[in-house]
Design brief:
Layout lengths: L3 E5 L21 H19 L3 E5 L3 H14 L3 E3 L16 H6 L22 H18 L4 E6 L1 H11 L19 E6 L5 E8 L5
Parallel strand pairs: 1-4, 2-3, 2-4
Antiparallel strand pairs: 1-5, 5-6
Helix pairs in contact: 1-2, 4-5
C-alpha cells in the first residue's frame, strides 16, 4: 500500500499580477519560494523514512516548487505534462480581465462537462480524463512506491476525485478547493479502501 502526498504549487506571479491561471506559465514569487522551502523542511522527517518518487507539472510555478522541495528531500523531479492545470487555450498569457471578456458563451447555466471556456482549450470532461489517465499511468509505473506530487488547484481536485473513484458525472457535484502550498495526504487501509487522511494543510505556515 502506497501513500500519495499532494502539494498545490506555492504562490506564483499570476496570483499577484492580475494574470489568468491555467496554462499561463508564471514563476514563483519570493514568498512562493520561501513557502516551498518551509514545505521541504516540514517533509524531511516524514518523507525521509520512506521511499518516495517526486512528480510535478512542467509549468514553472509547479516545477519550481518541486525543485525546491526536491532539493531539501534529495529527490529528483520527474515532470509530467499530464499534471498541468486545465488548458485555457487562447487565454494563456492573458490578464484576468481579458479572460473574463473573451470566454466562449455557455449553452446552459450551471456545470457543463463539455463546456470549453476558451478557444483551443479543454472542457472539464477532457481535463478530468487527462488527469485520470496521467494518474493511472503514474500509479502503475511506480507500483508500491510512495508518491509526492506537486500540481495545481484544479488538477489536485481531479486527482482527489480520481482517488475517491468518482464517476465522470460526479465531478459536477463536488470540487476540492485547495490553497497555494496546501498539503493533502492520501492512503489505503488494510481492506483497500482509499482514504483522504489530510486535505489542504497550510498550518506549517503559521
Amino acid at each position: 500500500m502506497s501513500n500519495i502526498i499532494l502539494i498545490q504549487h506555492c504562490q506564483s506571479e499570476h496570483h499577484i499580477n492580475n494574470m489568468s491561471g491555467g496554462w499561463t506559465d508564471t514563476p514563483l514569487t519570493e514568498l512562493g519560494r520561501k513557502q516551498a522551502e518551509i514545505i521541504g523542511e516540514k517533509l524531511i522527517n516524514y518523507v525521509g523514512y520512506n521511499d518516495y518518487v517526486l512528480y510535478s507539472s512542467d509549468l514553472l510555478r509547479a516545477s519550481q516548487t518541486a525543485e525546491i522541495i526536491g532539493t531539501k528531500l534529495s529527490l529528483k523531479v520527474i515532470q509530467d505534462k499530464g499534471l498541468r492545470e486545465i488548458n485555457t487555450g487562447v487565454a494563456a498569457g492573458k490578464t484576468k480581465e481579458w479572460a473574463r471578456a473573451n470566454r466562449q458563451p455557455q449553452a446552459r447555466s450551471g456545470f457543463d462537462l463539455d463546456y470549453q471556456e476558451f478557444q483551443n482549450g479543454e472542457s472539464w470532461r477532457e481535463f478530468y480524463n487527462r488527469v485520470c489517465d496521467c494518474m493511472d499511468r503514474i500509479y502503475e509505473l511506480e507500483k508500491n512506491k510512495n508518491l509526492l506530487i506537486v500540481t495545481h488547484g484544479g488538477t489536485l481536485s481531479n486527482i482527489l476525485a480520481w482517488w475517491m473513484k468518482f464517476e465522470l458525472h460526479m465531478i459536477g457535484n463536488a470540487y476540492f478547493s485547495s490553497s497555494p502550498g496546501g498539503i493533502s495526504v492520501l492512503s489505503q487501509n488494510s481492506i483497500q479502501q482509499n482514504i483522504v487522511n489530510k486535505f489542504n494543510d497550510t498550518s506549517y505556515f503559521d
